[in-house]
Amino acid sequence: MSETIKHIEIKSVVKSYGKIHAVNNVDLNVLAGECVALVGPNGAGKSTLFKLILGLVRPTSGTISILGQQPDQPVFDRIRKSIGFLPEQVLFQGSLTGRETLQFYTSLKGESKDQIDGLFQTVELVEAADRRVSTYSKGMRQRLGLAQALIGNPEILLLDEPTSGLDPASRLNFYEIIEKRRVQGAAVLLSSHALTELEARTNRVAVLAHGKLVANGSINALKSKLALSSKIKLKATPTQMKLLSTKFADHFDINHIVNGVAVLDCPENQKVSLVKDLMSSDIKFDGIEIIEPTLEQVFASLTKGEKRL
Ligand code: ADP
Ligand code: MG
Questions:
Q1: Cβ < 6 Å from ligand 1: which residues?
Q2: Where does a domain end: 165, 189, 224?
Q3: How far is it between the farthest Cα atoms of the chain?
């Protein structure tokens, strides 16, 4: 396969259900050796995007190309074998054992059963392999689902909310497995509604809100581009507050006073000088606190549609 072919290429894709634009004009590429996280709140369009990539639903407009082929072409059946997919809700037959389940999926994919033991080792389910799936915990089912997606070592991994319901240790193990596949050259697209757990674990995050891609970049790049303001909390007597409101009118808004505490918005790059100015003024403060924007706020500000990067 030529180097220039993008593993996943989504161009101006729209998917509407009546008046709802589940996916609204999205452009997104994932290359070999890349792990991209699709982040967004419930209803943002993440699962729809996976269905579009798999050819389970067709775009209303725009084009999708997977390993150079479009999902609605007959040749795509061959491409589909290169895709490992973990759906949002994994439904397994509870009466089958884990091993029987993977046997079923390997036959479905026309793959060798020899890899099954290795897959159980990878997802750390060796001891439970011959137990019925009905006895598995949520996390174990999720790991069995991951093993299913890894059958045949696919070039593309699509994982829809793979870590929801996993405890922190399983989550870590999960990202380690994905990272190994990525280093081997797989293109990984995974979705999550939590941005915080993705820090340092993915190359890029693509943030979806109301079907639109509102950001696409590394978490650090998003943080600095957004330049969310810090907040400076000040405690003072009403007389001193009055002084503050006149001397620092640029930063001050009467609505910022809550229970006698003033909260001043301040761009990150002006924080130090503002604090200096406040401290060298003749206003007497009873307390000062600087509140930095959190990753959750970055996410909230993006998904509320206030910003677009
Ligand atoms: P997410 O996976 O990010 O939670 P979805 O892709 O499941 O979001 O859904 C995006 C939007 O599209 C939601 O408003 C959802 O109700 C709507 N939607 C998804 N599938 C259908 C469908 N088959 N028919 C009608 N609306 C749908
Ligand atoms: Mg979903």
A1: 17, 20, 22, 40, 42-48
A2: 224
A3: 79
Residues 140 and 80 in one domain: yes
**131: Cβ–Cβ under 8 A, 6 or more apart, which residues?**
97, 98
Q: Which amino acid is at 80?
A: R
188 and 212 housed in the same domain: yes
pTM of the complete model beyond 0.90: no
Q: Among 204, 245, 223, which residue's Cα sits nearest to residue 301?
A: 223
Q: Please name the residue ranges forming H helices in 13-111.
A: 46-54, 76-80, 98-108
What amino acid is encoded at 185 in this protein? Answer: G
Which CATH number belongs to the domain containing residue 89 in this structure?
A: 3.40.50.300
The residue to mutate among 20, 26, 49, having the most atoms of ligand 1 within 8 angstroms of its beta carbon, is: 20
Print the domain residue range for 86: 6-224
pLDDT tens profile 266-292: 877 788 888 999 999 989 999 999 887
d(CA 45, CA 94): 30
298 found inside a domain: no
**Do 161 and 256 belong to one domain?**
no
Give the Cα-Cα-Cα angle 221, 225, 228 (nearest 5 degrees): 120
Residue-wise pLDDT for 68-93, tens only, equals 999 988 888 888 889 999 999 888 99
